[in-house]
């Protein structure tokens, strides 16, 4: 085979460049995905921290935990906007919007000085499109459960138990109490 012929050389050159491009793409894409996932996790952690601070400031200002409205209706969890994550242990009982406590004084709580935190104008879903959750029933728990502000992370399942000391699975959260 004579590689000096113009057509064969061009095909060999093109094939080599295509293989080299494919190898570079395969080497660089995982790093890009990894960096994107890290950035999303950092964003979720910052939002969970803001929500946790907001819940604690609400309690400090109003003198009550965000577990019921002024009509006495009790809640097990508070949720932000977005699709609810898979969280069987967390979603037992009745839920209420985080906005009802942190951004609006929908129940007319005396001494409400929100929004909580002050720079929060609106709540958004986590980077993966799901709602942040706060397991407020733990405020009245005698089992030493922690109050978490939590994102289910990329897999969409909360794998952290309220009694855990650290986040489980790929969850992203902050202990508020």
Q: Estimate the global geometry from the Cα principal axes.
A: elongated
How do the strands of the widest beta sheet line up side by side? 2-1-3-4-5
Q: Class in CATH?
A: Alpha Beta
Domain count, please report it. Answer: 1
The total beta strand count reads 5
Blueprint of the fold:
Layout: H1 6-62, E1 77-79, E2 95-97, H2 98-102, E3 133-134, E4 148-151, E5 172-175
Parallel strand pairs: 1-2
Antiparallel strand pairs: 1-3, 3-4, 4-5
Can you walk through the features of this model?
The protein is an alpha+beta fold. The chain has one domain: Glycoprotein, Type 4 Pilin (2-Layer Sandwich). It is built from 2 helices and 5 strands. The protein has a 5-stranded mixed sheet. The longest helix has 57 residues, at 6-62. It is elongated and about 80 Å long. The model has no long low-confidence stretch (mean pLDDT 82).
Give a short synopsis of this structure.
By secondary structure, the protein is of the alpha+beta class. The chain has helices at 6-62, 98-102, and strands at residues 77-79, 95-97, 133-134, 148-151, 172-175. The chain has one domain (40-175): Glycoprotein, Type 4 Pilin (2-Layer Sandwich), CATH 3.30.700.10.
């Amino acid at each position: 085979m004579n590689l000096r012929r113009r057509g064969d050389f061009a095909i060999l050159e093109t094939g080599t460049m295509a293989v080299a491009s494919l190898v570079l793409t395969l080497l660089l894409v995982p790093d890009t995905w990894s960096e994107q996932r890290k950035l999303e996790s950092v964003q979720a952690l910052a939002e969970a921290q803001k929500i946790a601070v907001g819940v604690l400031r609400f309690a400090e200002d109003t003198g009550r935990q965000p577990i019921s409205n002024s009509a006495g209706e009790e809640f097990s969890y508070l949720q932000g906007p977005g699709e609810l994550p898979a969280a069987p242990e967390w979603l037992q009982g009745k839920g209420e919007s985080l906005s009802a406590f942190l951004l609006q004084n929908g129940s007319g709580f005396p001494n409400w000085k929100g929004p909580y935190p002050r720079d929060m104008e609106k709540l958004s879903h986590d980077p993966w499109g799901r709602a942040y959750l706060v397991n407020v029933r733990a405020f009245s728990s005698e089992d030493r459960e922690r109050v978490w502000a939590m994102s289910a992370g990329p897999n969409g399942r909360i794998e952290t138990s309220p009694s855990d000391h650290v986040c489980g699975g790929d969850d992203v959260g902050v202990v508020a109490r």
